[in-house]
Amino acid sequence: MNKHLLDQSSIDILAVDDTRANLRLLTSILTEQGYNVRPVPNGRLALSSVEAKPPDLILLDIDMPEMTGFEVCERLKADERFQDIPVLFISVLSDTTDKVKAFSVGGVDYITKPFQAEEVLARVQTHLALNAMQQYLKKQNVLLQQEVIERQKAEKGLIAMRDQALVSSQLKDEILSRVSHELRTPLSIILGYSDILREGAYGPILKEQDQILAEIMDSSQKLTRIVDELLTQAEFEVNQVRLENTVFDLNVLLSRVEAQMRILAEAKGLAIQTEVDWKDSPVISGDKRWLEHILINLIDNAIKFTKMGGVTIKCSSNGVEFWCVQVKDTGIGISKQDQARIFEPFDQVDGSTTRPYGGMGLGLSIVHGLTKLMGGTIMVESEIGSGSTFRITFPLEASKKCLITEKRT
Ligand code: ADP
Fold first, then answer.
1. Among 97, 102, 98, residue whose Cα is nearest residue 73
2. Pocket test for ligand 1, best of 236, 339, 364, 380 (most atoms within 8 A of CB)
């Protein structure tokens, strides 16, 4: 509320009455209470006094020659600068029509003559307090409106930034996807021709040439994998990875994956073995292609980060609720700190231990995304120097339900 209300000496009241005695009485009642009073004897002087310095409240006699109190009030209320000043009419008239008119021209109250000091003071205090409250609320309202405007502006700015980010993100995905597609074609041509050359389709080749061709093919395959990972990651970013469920025997999938990865493992002198611990036969329903992708990624990492020992792939289920696949290695291990971030895209455990192994830091992020999409969870247990175990658990119920529907159809 207005602070100067607490201090009456800072409140300025204009008292307007053509009867000198009344004006004197009013002035003394109010000045005794500490108010500043400006006594004026007619309407014309009242208007110029307001113009010179707007008061906090006006006590206005109605029945005055030249210009009545009603006219004075109407003029004040028509002026934006003065319309908020509370006007209290004073009159001997007790006619209801006059009282009604007093309010209709903009007065806030009415005091009848002869007036009592207590009544005048009580009404003056009430209207000063009310007006102060109104002014306070008005100011608050203006502040709130400004705040709303500022918030709307900020919101618009945020929306513009979001749209901009969306456009940049779409552009990034578009570039990524196009570049990846454009790389794939020449890569497959390099691979194809190298293979044909190695097989002697254009004449016999020397041992050194064969070795060089093998290196060309190896590098091209690495590049193809990177391109594939980039494409899959881009698909994840725009939620375009789709699952295709079929019913299949996990044993068949495991044998195929093991045969493929055995070449890599044995080239490094590592053992590789698969164990299946399943109550019945391991027939499940799911996306075979993506499941194979997950397994190859985990096993590839296991081989990549292991120097001695081997890799074990274990699938198990007690036939109730879940089935689980784990890939265990005897490799370099991952510290607790790094375990928390290896599933983030483009994250690699920093330092000389991992850099020589290449990769883009996308494999585990894709594995994590695929696992989630399939309703599963992934966790890692690892100790530096002893090895790592990646364990993925999938719900069996979903697989079973799917199996039943597919058998029926
Ligand atoms: P990259 O393709 O670069 O290997 P990944 O997302 O597959 O990327 O793995 C991220 C990082 O996690 C790797 O760079 C490596 O530091 C660590 N990591 C993943 N698997 C293993 C593992 N079996 N043993 C030790 N470190 C691993």
1. 102
2. 364
Q: In terms of Cα–Cα distance, which of 121, 24, 51, 130 is closest to 86? A: 130
Residue 30 neighbours by CB under 8 Å, 6+ apart = 13, 15, 37, 120, 121, 124
CA–centroid distance, 75 to ligand 1, in Å, is: 84
Long-range contacts, stretch 69-72, CB < 8 angstroms, 24+ apart: 69/16, 69/43, 70/101, 70/102, 70/105, 71/43, 72/16, 72/43, 72/46, 72/47
Dist. CA 324 → ligand 1 center (Å): 21
Going from the Cα of 388 to the center of ligand 1, the distance in angstroms, rounded, reads 10
Q: Can you tell me which atom of ligand 1 is nearest the CA of 362?
A: 6
Instruction: Report the nearest atom of ligand 1 relative to the CA of 332.
Output: 25
Q: Whose CA is nearest to atom 18 of ligand 1?
A: 301
CA of 225 to the centre of ligand 1 (A): 15
Q: How far is the CA of 245 from the centre of ligand 1 (A)?
A: 28
Over the stretch 136-191, which tens digit does the pLDDT of each residue have? 999 999 999 999 999 999 999 999 999 888 888 778 777 777 877 788 888 999 99
Bridge-based pairing state of the strands 283-286 and 57-61 = unpaired
Is the bond leading into 204 cis (omega within 30 degrees of zero)? no
| Spatial distance between the Cα atoms of 258 and 404, rounded to a whole number of angstroms | 29
Question: What ligand 1 atom has the least distance to the C-alpha of 347?
Answer: 10
Amino acid at 31: T
Q: Are 62 and 90 in contact (CB under 8 A)?
A: yes
The radius of gyration computed from the CA coordinates of the chain, to the nearest angstrom, equals 45
| 58 φ, ψ (degrees, to nearest 5) | -125, 130
- Give the integer Cα–Cα distance in Å for 165 and 146: 28
Please say whether the beta carbons of 140 and 119 come within 8 A: no
Q: For residues 370 and 292, what is the distance between their CA atoms, to the nearest angstrom?
A: 11
pLDDT digits (tens, 9 = 90+) for 250-268: 999 999 999 999 999 999 9
Q: For residue 360, which atom of ligand 1 is closest to its CA?
A: 3
